[in-house]
């Protein structure tokens, strides 16, 4: 009779432990983690494709947005280069191409936007919030 009681207590303890394990697994949220990982993998794939142009490894060039101006206002880069715009004003700004080739969206103070240029050409852009702010990117082959 005593052995039966011990067995029942053991069974109860195992069941409680089992429930605790299940709770931990539910908290893990595996779906969200998988989405983030696949985003990271896609980003890496894109970078690898940019690097495929053997002649020119893409450089990153900084354009500062400060005092309601793009600096430098006109910039010359090569195909495959990336421009990073960073807003140093407390006012929000955008870097928006006149022909919809790129659009930073609203950049708050300290925020950045990067664009890699794969096609030669002249890209005129503005800040949509302050349309008198103008800039030009000249991409040379
Ligand atoms: Cu602006």
UniProtKB/TrEMBL annotation:
<dbReference type="InterPro" id="IPR000923">
    <property type="entry name" value="BlueCu_1"/>
</dbReference>
<dbReference type="InterPro" id="IPR035668">
    <property type="entry name" value="Amicyanin"/>
</dbReference>
<feature type="binding site">
    <location>
        <position position="127"/>
    </location>
    <ligand>
        <name>Cu cation</name>
    </ligand>
</feature>
<dbReference type="GO" id="GO:0005507">
    <property type="term" value="F:copper ion binding"/>
</dbReference>
<dbReference type="Pfam" id="PF00127">
    <property type="entry name" value="Copper-bind"/>
</dbReference>
<feature type="domain" description="Blue (type 1) copper">
    <location>
        <begin position="61"/>
        <end position="140"/>
    </location>
</feature>
<dbReference type="InterPro" id="IPR052721">
    <property type="entry name" value="ET_Amicyanin"/>
</dbReference>
<keyword id="KW-0813">Transport</keyword>
<feature type="binding site">
    <location>
        <position position="93"/>
    </location>
    <ligand>
        <name>Cu cation</name>
    </ligand>
</feature>
<protein>
    <submittedName>
        <fullName>Amicyanin</fullName>
    </submittedName>
</protein>
<keyword id="KW-0574">Periplasm</keyword>
<feature type="binding site">
    <location>
        <position position="130"/>
    </location>
    <ligand>
        <name>Cu cation</name>
    </ligand>
</feature>
<dbReference type="GO" id="GO:0009055">
    <property type="term" value="F:electron transfer activity"/>
</dbReference>
<keyword id="KW-0479">Metal-binding</keyword>
<dbReference type="InterPro" id="IPR002386">
    <property type="entry name" value="Amicyanin/Pseudoazurin"/>
</dbReference>
<keyword id="KW-0186">Copper</keyword>
<dbReference type="GO" id="GO:0042597">
    <property type="term" value="C:periplasmic space"/>
</dbReference>
<keyword id="KW-0249">Electron transport</keyword>
<dbReference type="InterPro" id="IPR008972">
    <property type="entry name" value="Cupredoxin"/>
</dbReference>
